[in-house]
Amino acid sequence: MESNSVHHHLPSAIKLLPSLLQKPLIFPFNFKAQKQPRLALLANCSNNGYSNNVRLASPSSTTTSESPEIDWDNLGFSIVPTDYMYSMKCAQGENFTNGQLQCFGNIELSPSAGILNYGQGLFEGLKAYRKHDGKILLFRPEENALRLRMGAERMCMPAPSVEQFVEAVKQTVLANKNWIPPPGKGSLYIRPLLLGSGAVLGLAPAPEYTFLVYVSPVGNYFKEGLAPINLIVETDVHRATPGGTGGVKTIGNYAAVLKAQKAAKSNGYSDVLYLDSIHKKYLEEVSSCNIFIIKGNVISTPEIAGTILPGITRKSIIDVACNQGFQVEERLVTVDELLDADEVFCTGTAVVVSPVGSVTYLGKRVTFGKEGVGRVSRQLHSALTSLQMGLTEDKMGWVVELE
């Protein structure tokens, strides 16, 4: 009688709970379709929340009423909330359609979403640059789209087409164009995400997927900028193993390196260089970028064989170096060759080209060059960034101009 009495006084929504639980609960992202005119939407999405790591410009700074008041000279590499992000969904076995811009903000997920429980997620990274004439440039966005599709196949996920990916990036960049730093002050970092957003309990592909694109203005990834960084070679922890997911840009690859990276930084190093997990003597990559060594006129980099991410900056540097007369080899590179190199540098979307000043291996520290940044590293950095920023003619057909 007591239980019936209690039940009688329960709110009607709670009394419906047993019937609701007979059906799978899927909590979509909490997005609402935007139906306002674009100008009204821009006003509604204006984001005044700045990262604590970004100082506001002084009152004397020259900014327009439409531009965020950021001290562009002191941009770091951390999230700065912007105005818009892009969202597109599809169910497992279907195709992505009907993407749209949304106000940048938090998202809502089921506790049993595939990305939260089984790590079914991928991300990409690319940049937009502003030219002195006001035009906006993207660098090889179709390569990011192709890499995302390759990773999605490995992770059992549907993916946007190359055209959908590039269009989503273009829309997001143009909607946030006021956040692109002035020429020479940085870039707009673009982060596309593909995630299993549908609810799933047993180990299986998620029933629903979400493709997101958000952006943030950034400065240098390493605080040193183009100054040499210092690496430590990790001998116990491995970033990837043969047959795993080291060759795709899945989220789990990066969480796995955090412990070693944190320990390295606490000891004064910039980052960690990982070795292969079988022989423990061949170079693989740094936590978030590829590695190159220079000996004479030969530039060598570890070959892509399933455990190393096929970096788009890596691929571009190889082509640029070949065009400049260097011999480039993609092969197994031993740690002994690294220690005997004339120069060493890293490549990646975030770092572009970052010269290595020293490498520490088994307690032995080896330095490279006497003038800080090596000649070849500086030459390749200049050639690539000049292309990306539209300072030199794009004979490779890599740059996409937005306006």
What is the radius of gyration? 24 Å
CATH topology of the largest domain: D-amino Acid Aminotransferase, Chain A, domain 1
Structural class: alpha+beta
CATH class of the largest domain: Alpha Beta
- The shape is globular
> What is the level-2 CATH architecture name of the largest domain?
2-Layer Sandwich
Helix content: 10-25%
User: What is the makeup of the main sheet?
Assistant: 9 strands, mixed
Please tell me the overall pLDDT: 86
N- and C-termini, Cα separation? 73 Å
Quaternary organisation of the protein chains:
single chain
Strand content: 25-35%
Total strand segments: 17
As for the number of domains, it is 2
Give the ordered list of helices and strands.
Answer: HHHHEEHEEEHHEEEHHEEEEHEHEEEHE
Under CATH, the homologous superfamily of the largest domain reads: Aminotransferase class 4, branched-chain amino acid transferase, N-terminal domain
Tally of alpha and pi helices: 12
- Uncertain stretches of 5 or more adjacent residues: 1-42, 48-65
Protein name: Branched-chain-amino-acid aminotransferase
Enzyme class: transferase
EC number: 2.6.1.42
Modified residues (N6-(pyridoxal phosphate)lysine): 249
